[in-house]
Automatic annotation (TrEMBL):
It holds the Pfam family IclR_C. InterPro entries: GAF-like_dom_sf (IPR029016), HTH_MetabolicPath_Reg (IPR050707), Tscrpt_reg_IclR_C (IPR014757), Tscrpt_reg_IclR_N (IPR005471), WH-like_DNA-bd_sf (IPR036388), WH_DNA-bd_sf (IPR036390). It comes from Bacillus xiapuensis. Residues 66-243 form the IclR-ED domain. The keyword Membrane does not apply. Signal peptide: none annotated. This is IclR family transcriptional regulator. Transmembrane segments: none annotated.
Amino acid sequence: MQSIDRAMQIIKVLIKHDPNRFFSITELAKECDLPTSSMHRILNAMIKHEMIQQDPQRKLYGLGTLWLEYGLIVYDTLDYVSVLRPELENLMRNLGATVYLSRPIGKESIIIERIDCINQTIHAHDKLGHRTPLHVGAANLTMLAHMSPNFVEEVMNEFIPDNERISLHHRLNKIKMDGYELSHEDQTSGISSIAAPLLSHYGGVVGAISIKLNISHLSENQLKWTVDEVVNSGNKISWKMGYSTVNFV
């Protein structure tokens, strides 16, 4: 068990920095707070399983090909090409904004796809694989709003101060009723996020789509149309995944 924990610690160090960067054994030992001798044994075992790779000339270590292989296998099981990608691309073209697809994992979410809009002026994009707590951000809140009350209470008890729980409950109820969340991330620049949930055939939440854009120059009607486009795309994807009680705008 200790070996698994140490191996994952090494992987987290490699991912935390530039995934294309290679580290010396001394750097990894320092980052993981492990003796160099122990690090050497673990790295050799990880190389055998392609979890990491070694540059033979520089004697440096980086991420192995195993993660790409497994990621592509999982990616291929998401009905992505036939169900999700066409709707995400249409939304990107209609709104001229980069579109994100998030998926819940425990009490966090992970960005599993991003459709870039090359003409968008916002260039600070969230990275694929980026994890955030479910109570933070528009996309995450739309997912949390559709989860079971017991799970929501677990999140509240673990992460939310007592004096903020009633306010968050009201916010989640409104999100569930409206079918979307609009949050202002940066008041100065006018950057906001708009998100809608993705629901499965039994009504459970399986993800969320979201966009980031500057809404400061949008009229009230333009903003409403933008929100409707996001919600409609979420509804279409949910319908394709078997959810039947959606209303298209």
